[in-house]
Write a structure and sequence with these properties.
The protein is of the alpha+beta class. Helix content is 49%, strand content 15%. It is elongated and about 105 Å long.
């Protein structure tokens, strides 16, 4: 085998074929990498590697066409067939020679992530997983080409046959769709011949055991078939021919059956065992919160995916299948709207839904999730191009399941009537995702805060509350109500009643705006604050993701003597100061002599024992037996408030400045407030980031890299191959 390998490997480079293969493969893929990474500044090369499947369809048949066809044409195969070595060793030696050439290209491409890492952060795990998949994909297709080369003595026919088979394999999903959108036995068989789709698993950032076993079985099966073809030619027509033919046929059938059985067995394993997610955001993995929730699910839920199985979103399908594996009560069903138009008539809210939208149903209740809502998008306003930046399917589906199995949804009220700012769309989406019903609350039209209020949000009142409104709010809070509030730097001078609400939680707000002197704590303007985020249950996801909270024109909170338990969430550096007279139009933030420098608190969590406070204010009987008895009977109903010094904290603009960290904090805070509420359990799964940080490559450096990688290296390979071929021909 070793001698065969050395002979064939050397022959590939003694001629022009090996050099041509290296030059074309390297040149084309480097061209795309240059456009994507050197010019487009994309650190991830996996999208470019998808092009390799098309290039290999053309180049692998050219590389392998002479492996057996040329030997057969020149009759040199007789020497091999009569040599004191097994046919299997001959086949393996020739195949490994071809595989070695293919491996040289892959190893060369492995240098690109290392090169790109000099100019920014590169997702190494995802990049090398894609390269590993490319290597396996090439090995599988080479095995097919070697087998087809053994069937003919014409190298052109061998190349054409190989190209045709590989091309059919690539378009197999389209053929399946043409035959049947819902799938049948024929499409299942055709799907088994779809090699490129297994390559896609690796390109998507998954080490998929089912794909690995499939590609390995393709290599084994076609090398075995090649061995059987050559084995038959070793025997002349004799009395033994018939018996050998029957033996060979039975052996082929047995190997084919074992191969199919092995793949079926692996496909039956749960995806949690077969799929290893290497993406940085865990795109193809479920969070522990989701797993725990689904294990406790005790009602039947069906998720209808409005798409055919051939047009499904791979990431979404992976998420749904993993969720179904976690609970026997959860079923996934694909419905093609084109083939089943009557299905949609049962639902009145799906007409505007796009392909791959979801209908989550349990009993008589359902919730529709539009496909576009499962992803997060950003817009480049310089080009007005939209790009996908996040994947939110897991969180959205969790929320929808909780919604349809719950008998009652928690209620959130947004106080109005005092110049409050509206919540940004990112933040109302958070409320929807957490299955919270929300509506505006005008206390002029209500005698009290409604009894069904699970959370009250007061977003930066610009004018003072009336005494009556403040009493209504305090009455709600003293009964254990929950509050999320922001203060407004443009508020009126006299905010006596609003100050009463803040004082209930043991804090007061400064009348000036906090400015920063430490460049690490602000963005562009001294008033655009990026405060220090304390590590708490509410902020842990922000801290773990190295995120920032953006707070513009923020006021500071000062603790007052009270019985409140106060936890600082957001703080400035020690070089911050409070500046008065600041408006949204202020450009000069020069520090005044009267401005006091120090560390200031911009966000707090305050917990008040409402019943205990009422008792303490009554008759000062802390040490008496009567007071102890009263406290025990009344219990310790707690009122929790989350207070933030900037009215812009819950605006979409602020959220975009920090890639969604503000909405993540808001989600965690709302979830914490709703933990004790009846209704749908608030499951908060952060949006999984898809976008990558751009590389920083100087334009001249990009030009030089493109010149070297795309032009000089392929040209050097071609010239080397041509010179060697010319010298050997003259010799």
């Amino acid at each position: 085998m070793t001698a065969v390998f050395k002979k064939d490997f050397a022959s590939l480079f003694h001629g022009f074929i090996g050099w041509l293969f290296l030059a074309v493969m390297w040149g084309i893929l480097s061209l795309y990498i240059g456009m994507s990474s050197f010019i487009g500044l994309d650190p991830d090369i996996t999208a470019v590697l998808a092009v390799s499947s098309v290039v290999m369809i053309v180049m692998l048949p050219i590389l392998s066409m002479r492996s057996f066809a040329e030997e057969r044409k020149t009759r040199t195969d007789q020497m091999i067939l009569t040599a004191p070595v097994s046919i299997g060793q001959v086949v393996l030696g020739k195949y490994l020679a071809l595989a070695a050439v293919h491996s040289i290209v892959v190893l060369g491409l492995c240098l690109y992530p290392l090169l790109l890492s000099r100019f920014g952060t590169v997702p190494f795990a995802q990049s090398y997983t894609g390269l590993f998949g490319m290597w396996l994909f090439g090995l599988a297709e080479l095995a097919v080409c070697v087998f087809l080369s053994s069937l003919t003595e014409n190298v052109i026919i061998a190349a054409v046959l190989s190209f045709a088979c590989l091309f059919l394999s690539m378009i197999m999903p389209n053929l399946e769709q043409m035959i049947s959108a819902d799938g049948n036995l024929l499409t299942t068989v055709l799907g088994a011949l779809d090699i490129p789709s297994r390559f896609d698993s690796f390109l998507n950032g998954k080490i998929d055991l089912t794909a690995l076993v499939y590609l390995a079985s393709i290599v084994f099966l076609f090398l075995f078939l090649t061995t059987q073809v050559l084995q038959k030619r070793r025997y002349t027509v004799s009395r033994n021919t018939l018996s050998f033919g029957a033996y060979s046929t039975g052996l082929v059938a047995l190997v084919l059956a074992v191969t199919v059985a092995a793949n079926l067995a692996v496909n039956q394993l749960p995806s949690s065992f077969t799929v290893h997610d290497v993406t940085e955001s865990g795109l193809y993995s479920l969070t522990d919160d989701t797993k725990e929730y689904l294990k406790q699910l005790d009602q039947d839920v069906t998720i209808y995916v409005l798409a055919s199985t051939s047009d499904k979103d791979s990431a979404l399908d992976s998420t749904l299948q993993q969720m179904a594996e976690e609970s026997s009560h959860l079923k996934i069903q694909y419905v093609d709207p084109a083939a089943n138009p009557s299905f949609l008539q049962k639902y009145d809210d799906v007409m505007d839904c796009t392909w791959n939208s979801l209908i989550v149903e349990s009993g008589s209740r359902h919730k529709t999730l539009n496909y576009s809502d499962l992803y997060e998008y950003s817009i480049d306003y310089s080009t007005y191009q939209q790009s996908v930046t996040g994947y939110d399917a897991e969180g959205q589906v969790d929320s929808a399941i909780a919604c349809v199995v719950s008998e009652k949804l928690p209620k959130v009220y947004l106080l109005t009537g005092h110049g409050e700012e509206s919540l940004g769309s990112n933040f109302t989406s958070v409320l929807t995702k957490l299955n919270c019903e929300y509506e505006d609350l005008d206390l002029l039209k209500n005698d009290t805060v409604p009894e069904d209020c699970g959370l009250l949000i007061i977003n930066g009142p610009a004018t003072d509350l009336s005494a009556d409104d403040a009493d209504k709010v305090l009455g709600y809070l003293q009964n254990g109500g929950k509050l999320i509030a922001t203060t407004n730097f443009q508020e009126a001078e006299d905010m006596t009643n609003w100050d009463r609400v803040l004082a209930y939680y043991g804090v007061s707000a400064s009348r000036g705006v906090v400015l920063e002197n430490n460049p690490g704590y602000y963005y562009r303007l001294e008033s655009y604050l990026l405060p220090e985020v304390s590590s708490t249950d509410e902020t842990s996801s922000v801290v773990s993701g190295n995120g920032y909270v953006f707070m513009a024109y923020s006021q500071a909170f000062t603790e007052e003597e009270s019985g409140a338990e106060i936890t600082k969430l957001l703080t400035t550096s020690d070089n911050a100061y409070i500046h008065t007279g600041v408006t949204s139009e202020t450009e000069n933030f020069e520090k005044k002599d009267t401005d006091v420098t120090g560390q200031y608190t911009l966000g707090v969590k305050s917990v008040v024992n409402a019943e205990k406070e009422a008792s303490e204010e009554s008759e000062e009987m802390e040490e008496s037996e009567e007071s102890d008895a009263a406290e025990e009977s009344e219990g310790s109903e707690e009122s929790t408030a989350y207070l933030f010094g900037s009215v812009l904290t819950f605006s979409d603009g602020a959220d975009q400045m920090v890639s969604g960290s503000n909405s993540t904090l808001f989600s965690n805070v709302v979830r914490a407030c709703m933990e004790d509420e009846d209704g749908a359990e608030a499951i908060s799964v952060p949006v999984k980031s898809i976008s990558q940080e751009s590389l920083t490559i100087p334009s001249m450096t990009a030009i030089v890299l493109n010149l070297v990688c795309v032009v000089l290296i392929p040209l050097a390979l071609l010239i080397t191959g041509f010179v060697i071929w010319l010298v050997r021909r003259r010799a």
